[in-house]
Amino acid sequence: MPVDPAAPITITAFDWVPDFARGQVRDLRVRWALEEVGQPYAVRLLSQGAQKRPPHRSRQPFGQVPTLEDGDLILFESGAIVWHIAERFPGLMPGTAAARAMQLEWAFAALNTLEPPFMDHAMATLFEADAPWSASRLPAVMARIDERLHEASDRLGTADWFGGEFGPGDLLMVSVLRMADGMLDDHPNLAAYVARGTGRDAFGRALDDHMAGFTGAPPPVDPERAPPPDGP
């Protein structure tokens, strides 16, 4: 659905991130959930640095995105927001208590068990690639990712979804496993699982809106951290 600036729900997102981060910033998960339930939303775009200033910290104490404002309710953390959306609007949460419990189980698994080693990988290969510890740390990070992918693949087996039917837990599992780009060759069932999730119409709409928001400019370079100029 088109982003509606008059919608009662507002989320926050960045107006610029490096190319490697586009399609991965966590507002995409929130947009996807809103698309699944057919709920229009407005977006407050933040330039880099604005997330650390007092107006946004009043919404998100750790200076991150996304946040969600739903009337008087302000939430942060993508998992909490996705869960709220699934509970608040019909279309994403399964109907029985047992099925909801399974979705909650996989939401925690996505964020607490699978995502941390992928974030360690991003730190070692992207954000802190020049740090002296990165090269020596990477083999252990890759071993943990490989272990988690094998475990997830074994549990999924031939099923379509971890939670029995698609719901907020599987939305978060797909979102995390998208970070495993190039690492799923030995796990065709996980590759097919990610393809099923990202093939949903709601995901396609969310991704289009997410990418369309990158209309800003990169932050100015800090002279103290800039590379030295060319020449002697």
Structure description:
There is one protein chain. The protein is α+β, with helices and mostly antiparallel strands. Strand 3 (67-70) and strand 4 (73-76) form a beta hairpin. It contains eight helices and four strands, in the order E-H-E-H-E-E-H-H-H-H-H-H. The protein has a four-stranded mixed β-sheet with strand order 2-1-3-4, covered by helices on one side.
Brief summary of the model shown:
By secondary structure, the protein is α+β, with helices and mostly antiparallel strands. The protein has helices at 27-36, 54-57, 78-88, 97-127, 134-156, 168-177, 188-198, 201-212, and strands at residues 9-14, 42-46, 67-70, 73-76.
Strand order of the largest sheet: 2-1-3-4
Low-confidence segments = 223-232
What Rg, in angstroms, do the CA atoms define?
19 Å
Label the structural class: alpha+beta
Give the CA-CA distance, first to last residue. 55 Å
- Helix fraction bin: 40-55%
Shape: globular
**Rounded average pLDDT:** 92
Number of helices: 8
Total DSSP E strands? 4
Characterize the main sheet. Answer: 4 strands, mixed
**Could you state the order of secondary-structure elements as H and E?**
EHEHEEHHHHHH
Strand content: 5-15%
Descriptive terms for the model:
alpha+beta; disordered C terminus; four-stranded mixed β-sheet; globular
Could you outline the blueprint of secondary structure elements for this entry?
Elements (H helix, E strand, L loop, with lengths): L8 E6 L12 H10 L5 E5 L7 H4 L9 E4 L2 E4 L1 H11 L8 H31 L6 H23 L11 H10 L10 H11 L2 H12 L20
Parallel strand pairs: 1-2
Antiparallel strand pairs: 1-3, 3-4
Helix pairs in contact: 1-3, 1-8, 4-5, 4-6, 6-7
